[in-house]
Structures are given as structure tokens and as C-alpha cells.
């Protein structure tokens, strides 16, 4: 009896120590979520009387810096006057209207923060900011509907299911369906520019909305175009080393017109966020289809990312081919998208631990003072040091709402696996 008692005491001590270590190890998540909730609530109430969303801050760099980053002088200003017209706004928060491609990320961040903390104030604000996006469901002229509606209404459907939300997802899928050309096998990305039929790698991020819409409606057309889009993109966007082009434009018969970059260093470079969209998109496609060609694609892209990163903290420079110099801007948003995808990928394969570990490193580093805002600072955003489009001199080394969104999503996926023993 005495022996059993001793064994029980020893076992309790060991369990206690393990729990203590585990709590300490993921204590950084509690700190990060505290900051995230504070920042989101402050910003939500600051914008409460408007129909604007917080997007980033205005940045402005001189041409010499841009040329040194790009290695060439082809600065991509669609309208050079436009860049200089906002110089005086430098350093201020940049808000955006609901038809901006990033409008779904702030409501989506509120939903994830609510899910992670149970804070009802976050839910109240999530509902408010999601409702503002209602007119977007039938927006023509852009492929960004997946970002806008799946991150907002898609999370609302998970966390506060109702038929109105489901109908919004279905209507949005119809709008995307209209942008699919069966001769090309892709959803058209942009309606601007001189390309015949531009498709960007970012477009892989629409597919989750289409998969959701098929489940909600029972209509397999949305699933079918998602799969077709993923297959065509796999065929034409990737180089033999599994890096991908940003833009591929097609002729009407489905042959390639040209392959280019829009936001990367040059046409043959490896734009960091684009690689994140790729690994995220193919991981989703495998989750939904169980087609192992999508899984292999996700694994190849993931391995390429880990091999190509040049920074010590795994938060990549804005392009994997950018000069490895102290002044080269990072892209925390690329790191967040990558981390979220890697955590999901790690759950889909038996030997996924290395992807989980890589994502954990990213999340821990982003949750340190080098990247994580202090309460009340950073214009209300959670993370610092992302890059939107360096060739356009736009949002270079700044907070952006999509970094915050994918950071919280990654954190949710991370904590679902780690399941803290002691809070
Ligand atoms: N979808 C635009 C971007 O990634 O910047």
C-alpha cells in the first residue's frame, strides 16, 4: 500500500512538472493573444462610426532604396503620380473601403481572436464588421472575393452558423464561378492591365470558399472549378524547382501568353508571399480532395521554402531573391501564411513534424518584441514588418491586416494541436 502511495506521489510530481514546462513553453501565446485582443478592440471602436477597415500604414521610400532592392530601375508604378500624392500621409494608418482586397481580414481577425479568447466584445465587433461586407458578395471585377468573404463570412459561418451567412458564401461562389473560363481552366484574377487573361498565384486562396460553397449548397460546380483551377495552376505557374511565378497570363485557347511578376523582385524571382499562397492553397486542395498530387505539390513548395529562407529567424525577406542585407525589408505576412499552411500540412501526413516545428519557430519569433506590437502602438495592428508591394513603393516594412489574420489563424491551428494543459 505504502509503495502504491509513493508511486502515485512520484507520478503526480512528474505530471506537475510536465504541465509546468508546457505552460511555460507556450506562455508566449497567452501574451500574444492578450496584445492581439487589445489591439483589435481598440481599432474596432476607433472605426465604429465608419464603414472603413484598417489595412496598413502609408509608407514611402526613395527610389534609390527601391532600385537597390530590385536590382533594376523598373519601378512598377501603374500611376507614378499616385505614389507621390500620398507621400504626405507617410506613417499614418491606411484604412480601406469594403471593396478593397483586404477588407475581410479585420473581421476575420476579430473572429479568430474571439474563438481563441471567448471574449464576447470581440464577437460583437466581429459581427458588426462582417455585416458591413454584405454588398461584396456579388462584386464583379475581381477574384479577391475569397479573401474578402471567406475570411469574414466563412469564419462567421463556423462560429455563429445561420442560413443568411451560408447564402452569402453561395452567392460569392456564383460571382467567382462567372470568372472561370473552361477553355483556360482558371478563374480570371484581374480586369486591369494589358494581360489577356491574368491569373495570379494568390488566386489559390479562393478555393476554400468554393469548397465551402459546394458543401453548403450540394452543388459540385464550385468544387469542380476549384480543382480545375488548382490543376491548371500546378501545370503553368511552377518552375522545376517548385518556386512559382506571380502572374501567368493565358491566351483564349489556354496556352500561356506570358509569365511575370507584379509584386516580386523580377519576373524570375521568388516572391515570398506568393510561395505562401501556393503552399497554403495546395494544402487546402489536398484536405478537400485527398488527391495526392496536390499533397506532393504542397510538400515540394514547403521544402523549397525551408531551403530558400535566408534569415536567421525564418521570417523571410520580402522576396526569397532579395539581397540578404540588414536593410532588406522582411515580410511577416508571408511568414504568417506559411506558418498557418505548415501547421495544417503537418496534420495531413505521418512525417509532418518538421513543418510543425518550422511553423512553431515562426510563431514564436513573431511573438517576440521584434515583431509583436506593444499595446496601444503600431496603429492598432498586431504585427510589424510586412511588405505589401515593394516594386510599387507601397506598404514596405509596415503592419498589414493580412499578417494579423494569418498569424491568428496559425495560432489557432497551433493551439489546437498543443492544447495547453494549464491554460
Ligand atoms: N493578393 C495580393 C497580395 O498578396 O499582396
TrEMBL record:
The keyword Hydrolase applies. GO terms for biological process: polysaccharide catabolic process. Substrate binds at residues 144, 202, 261, 273, 277, 389. GO terms for molecular function: chondroitin hydrolase activity. Keywords: Hydrolase. Pfam families: DUF4995, Glyco_hydro_88. The active site is at 144 (nucleophile), 202 (proton donor). Residues 5-70 form the DUF4995 domain. The keyword Iron does not apply. It comes from the Bacteria. Belongs to the glycosyl hydrolase 88 family. This is Glucuronyl hydrolase. It comes from Bacteroides clarus.
Amino acid at each position: 500500500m505504502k509503495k502504491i502511495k509513493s508511486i502515485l506521489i512520484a507520478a503526480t510530481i512528474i505530471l506537475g512538472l510536465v504541465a509546468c514546462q508546457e505552460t511555460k513553453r507556450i506562455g508566449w501565446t497567452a501574451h500574444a493573444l492578450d496584445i492581439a485582443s487589445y489591439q483589435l478592440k481598440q481599432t474596432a471602436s476607433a472605426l465604429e462610426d465608419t464603414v472603413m477597415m484598417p489595412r496598413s500604414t502609408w509608407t514611402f521610400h526613395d527610389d534609390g532604396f527601391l532600385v537597390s532592392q530590385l536590382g533594376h530601375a523598373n519601378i512598377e508604378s501603374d500611376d507614378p503620380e499616385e505614389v507621390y500624392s500620398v507621400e504626405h500621409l507617410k506613417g499614418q494608418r491606411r484604412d480601406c473601403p469594403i471593396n478593397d482586397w483586404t477588407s475581410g481580414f479585420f473581421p476575420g481577425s476579430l473572429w479568430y481572436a474571439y474563438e481563441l479568447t471567448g471574449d464576447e466584445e470581440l464577437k460583437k465587433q466581429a459581427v458588426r464588421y462582417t455585416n458591413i461586407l454584405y454588398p461584396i458578395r456579388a462584386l464583379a471585377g475581381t477574384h479577391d472575393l475569397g479573401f474578402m468573404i471567406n475570411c469574414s463570412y466563412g469564419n462567421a459561418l463556423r462560429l455563429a452558423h445561420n442560413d443568411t451567412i451560408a447564402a452569402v458564401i453561395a452567392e460569392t461562389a456564383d460571382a467567382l464561378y462567372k470568372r472561370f473560363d473552361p477553355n483556360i481552366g482558371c478563374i480570371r484574377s484581374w480586369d486591369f492591365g494589358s494581360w489577356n487573361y491574368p491569373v495570379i498565384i494568390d488566386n489559390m486562396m479562393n478555393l476554400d470558399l468554393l469548397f465551402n460553397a459546394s458543401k453548403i449548397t450540394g452543388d459540385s460546380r464550385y468544387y469542380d472549378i476549384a480543382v480545375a483551377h488548382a490543376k491548371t495552376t500546378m501545370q503553368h505557374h511552377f518552375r522545376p524547382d517548385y518556386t512559382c511565378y506571380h502572374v501567368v497570363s493565358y491566351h483564349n485557347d489556354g496556352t500561356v501568353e506570358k509569365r511575370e511578376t507584379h509584386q516580386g523582385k523580377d519576373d524570375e524571382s521568388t516572391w515570398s508571399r506568393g510561395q505562401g499562397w501556393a503552399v497554403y492553397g495546395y494544402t487546402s486542395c489536398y484536405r478537400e480532395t485527398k488527391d495526392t498530387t496536390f499533397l506532393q505539390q504542397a510538400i515540394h513548395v514547403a521544402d523549397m521554402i525551408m531551403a530558400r529562407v535566408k534569415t536567421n529567424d525564418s521570417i523571410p525577406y520580402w522576396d526569397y531573391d532579395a539581397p540578404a542585407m540588414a536593410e532588406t525589408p522582411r515580410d511577416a505576412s508571408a511568414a504568417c501564411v506559411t506558418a498557418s499552411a505548415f501547421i495544417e500540412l503537418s496534420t495531413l501526413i505521418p512525417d509532418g513534424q518538421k513543418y510543425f516545428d518550422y511553423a512553431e519557430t515562426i510563431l514564436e519569433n513573431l511573438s517576440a518584441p521584434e515583431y509583436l506590437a506593444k499595446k496601444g502602438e503600431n496603429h492598432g495592428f498586431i504585427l510589424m514588418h510586412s511588405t505589401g508591394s515593394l516594386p510599387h513603393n507601397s506598404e514596405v516594412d509596415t503592419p498589414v491586416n493580412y499578417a494579423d489574420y494569418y498569424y491568428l489563424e496559425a495560432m489557432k491551428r497551433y493551439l489546437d494541436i498543443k492544447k495547453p494543459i494549464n491554460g
